Q: What sequence folds into this?
């Protein structure tokens, strides 16, 4: 069989549950992919942030190996791109004869672009440094002085932030050709027929920025949903009293300004945004069908990270380690290579797995280390031996710096918060992460075991968050436990 083509559609901020047929979000084109392919229902990103997660997708490595920890575009960046010498899977594919094309959001480096890693660029965003300079805030001050005061009354879906500017969570906008995602898709549509006429296998990456907050969607998609049909999430009742103080602060000072109705409106707009993106996906799938190459083209629909979307009273993403921001959609279709289409795979999967998968499918050998592993056996309906039974996260904050690491199995989840109290959840009894058991002595053996796993992964991935100085060595069980076995 000829080497497959690869079409990747990556959204930004999309929750994993929005692509499941039982979810209220209207996504018929993703549903078609799922019915003709495989859905990975437990796929996770390594960090609740665009840049480190996208770097993981393109390298197959975790942040401690590729070096991207937060937003590479602003002045608080911990790095401006992947470490020197780190290789992207696109370089392997390009050297193996793949014709690679890129359209849309990059957000992996400001010192190198997709063209430096084997791609032909058609439309690019998230690739240059941006500073929020003091002139911006001086202008805000002048506006406030002109109106005699900082804003004290908020409008629909707005959150007051004195001195920062009022934030708007949701609203409507026109579907215009100049919008980012319309441009990204149109450039991809322009190049698809050209790729189909070529003699080489091809890869096409389409990077969208929706449904990133603020949730601004064309009205016709919002009209598909009735507010009365949008419930508050089960975890909305969480007071966060047993969670780190920063979680409480985010809710109390920011999202807590929203009424219950506005929270539900935010969720409604998010769902509508997902429907809009699904329409864009439909345009790409139709164009692929027209080329006659759909049979041997792997299509991956995924996201860089999720969104809390009202869970625990929060939106967007950030330092809270709840699953909503970490679990991502991952639907793959490849008619020539997937057996028993329509399946769901429940095993724990990482964004780091897709690079090794692409190389495996293309029969491109490499002996370098990956954090991830090939998903090809799952596509063939096989169960790989010794597949991971835990998933890990690495986060050093977004623009405010923190140290946060977590480990999750199918039964438990433990989060090490270097800045506040730790978290432990029994996912069998508490899937919405409402009750923190970190201080419950009954679960001490579980906490010890999860700490051991966390440090073993840290050792494997050369994570430097192991400083032993008295003011920062705050884990209940330190790194040495990684080498002590199960006790």
A:
């Amino acid at each position: 069989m000829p080497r497959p083509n690869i079409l990747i559609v990556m959204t930004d901020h999309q929750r994993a549950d929005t692509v499941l047929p039982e979810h209220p979000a209207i996504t018929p084109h993703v549903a078609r992919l799922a019915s003709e392919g495989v859905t990975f229902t437990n796929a996770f990103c390594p960090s609740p942030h665009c840049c480190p997660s996208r770097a993981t997708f393109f390298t197959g490595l975790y942040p401690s190996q590729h070096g991207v920890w937060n937003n590479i575009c602003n002045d608080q960046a911990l790095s401006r791109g992947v470490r020197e010498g780190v290789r992207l899977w696109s370089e392997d594919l390009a050297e193996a004869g793949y014709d690679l094309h890129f359209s849309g959001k990059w957000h992996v480096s400001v010192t190198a672009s997709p063209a430096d890693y084997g791609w032909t660029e058609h439309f690019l965003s998230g690739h240059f440094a941006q500073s929020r300079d003091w002139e911006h805030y001086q202008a805000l001050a002048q506006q406030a002085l002109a109106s005699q005061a900082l804003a004290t009354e908020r409008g629909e879906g707005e959150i007051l932030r004195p001195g920062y500017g009022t934030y708007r969570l949701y609203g409507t906008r026109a579907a215009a050709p100049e919008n980012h995602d319309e441009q990204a898709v149109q450039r991809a549509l322009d190049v698809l027929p050209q790729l189909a006429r070529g003699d080489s296998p091809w890869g096409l990456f389409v990077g969208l920025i929706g449904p990133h907050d603020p949730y601004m969607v064309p009205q016709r998609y919002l009209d598909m949903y009735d507010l009365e049909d949008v419930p508050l999430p089960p975890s909305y009742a969480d007071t966060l009293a047993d969670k780190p103080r920063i979680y409480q602060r985010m809710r109390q000072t920011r999202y807590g300004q929203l009424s219950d109705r506005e929270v539900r409106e935010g969720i409604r707009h998010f769902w509508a945004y997902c429907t809009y993106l699904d329409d864009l996906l439909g345009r790409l799938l139709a164009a692929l069908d027209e080329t006659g190459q759909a049979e041997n083209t792997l299509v991956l629909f995924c996201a860089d990270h999720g969104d809390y979307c009202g869970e625990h009273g929060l939106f967007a993403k950030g330092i809270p380690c709840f699953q909503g921001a970490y679990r991502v959609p991952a639907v793959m279709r490849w008619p020539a290579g997937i057996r028993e289409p329509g399946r769901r795979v429940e095993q724990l999967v990482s964004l780091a797995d897709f690079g090794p998968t692409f190389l495996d499918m293309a029969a491109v050998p490499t002996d370098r280390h990956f954090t991830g592993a090939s998903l090809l056996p799952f596509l063939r309906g096989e169960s790989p031996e010794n597949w991971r039974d835990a998933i890990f996260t690495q986060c050093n904050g977004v623009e405010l710096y923190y140290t946060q690491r977590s480990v999750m199995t199918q039964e438990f989840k433990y989060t090490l918060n270097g800045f506040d109290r730790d978290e432990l959840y029994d996912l069998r009894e508490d899937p919405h992460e409402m009750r923190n058991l970190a201080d419950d002595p009954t679960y001490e053996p579980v906490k010890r075991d999860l700490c051991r796993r966390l440090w073993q992964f840290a050792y494997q991935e050369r994570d430097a968050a192991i400083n032993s100085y008295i003011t920062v060595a705050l884990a209940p069980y330190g790194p040495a436990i990684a080498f002590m076995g199960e006790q």
Notes: The chain has two domains: 5-130+167-379, 409-483. The longest strand covers residues 401-408.
